[in-house]
């Protein structure tokens, strides 16, 4: 997976809103503790932590020429470590990978850790938090065959069900917007803005036919890579993220920190991936590049469809509701077109085939509305803070309920500029510190 910590300003703005302990210098401690950085030593990077992180050392020529063209065309530095001192510039992707394996939290913190007192129970669905006299005392679990049971907590309950799951469980437990809960027939335990402030990154894929990408989306290409990787593990693209290069840049709407993230993959990306009908993979050697909105202004909601815990929640991110969000994405596309016309890459480019040069001006804006898609980075639906918009306080405790915390992407007051997996891991790492300090451990 792509490993991005976020811009230092993101965390300083969280702290400025009253979230003491979440400024850049504070979260840097957690980031350093959680990683085992395989690159050159730096005061910004950690060594010996559970999550191995490296720069992809095997990127193809198309990705290299994209980096060179972006730097030249947009007057950006080539940044050797966007998770270090500064985020700005073009770069090779870093990923949480090591020993040819993805270092998920499951691998780093569980499989490879010695945790004799931990018991992981799988396949159940948490239907609610059991709250007695204003205190969380456990959770109700629905087992795979439908039977319900209560798991009781000795000290506290910590929800980490993500930006959709955590607000859903809280609302099913009577913790949420009072009017909405009453509408669904749920007794209100605490009237909180649970499910508000949902937001996500959005991007628009653009695909170019190029002559310096080694890949073809064919069964033969994947098949031979699988065989080669079996014979010599780690020797093919299968050991890395499909994203090879990227950049952090500023559109004319930026307020001092990058508001535009670029990605590049040496494959043809499906242009309408949210459609029910799957397109056939394009087998031309391609480079797909992405204009990505990383500081969206639009805010949506997570709400319950019903009081049935097995029913999916209603998710509405209000994508592009704020007009500036569309402007940023369109400007990003125009920047990428200029990059792909730069002499560092132009000689390799045959044509822009998605969305295609016919889309410009108003036609491009209309087309972006059809093509824009999630980056799968939902956050913010159990907002951390100290005002009436907050669901949890800066120690991640749910307001008004004893013994209950949330620790996942849902607590972000505002989304960080960059992919959200590393920040979500950091939130878990930091939650551990906060809880242990509270126990005097
Ligand atoms: C396809 C895809 C690709 C991505 N690629 C990247 C990437 O390359 N880099 C990056 O930085 N980020 C990436 N992300 C985003 C990243 O995965 C998320 O930001 C991160 O996982 C959020 O962590 P979380 O702990 O908040 O939630 P999650 O990782 O979603 O964890 C929540 C867990 O809770 C479980 N759960 C929910 N409800 C219940 C319930 N009622 N009972 C029991 N369990 C429940 C869920 O099954 C899930 O296992 C990607 C996301 C997707 C979907």
TrEMBL record:
One Pfam family named in its UniProt record: GMC_oxred_C
Cofactor(s) named in the record = FAD
Q: Cite the Glucose-methanol-choline oxidoreductase N-terminal domain residue spans from the record.
A: 162-176
Keyword Nucleotide-binding assigned: no
Q: Which UniProt keywords apply?
A: FAD, Flavoprotein
PANTHER family referenced in this protein's UniProt entry, alphabetically: CHOLINE DEHYDROGENASE, MITOCHONDRIAL (PTHR11552:SF147), GLUCOSE-METHANOL-CHOLINE GMC OXIDOREDUCTASE (PTHR11552)
Tell me its family: Belongs to the GMC oxidoreductase family.
Protein name according to UniProt = GMC family oxidoreductase N-terminal domain-containing protein
Q: In which organism is this protein found?
A: Nocardioides dubius
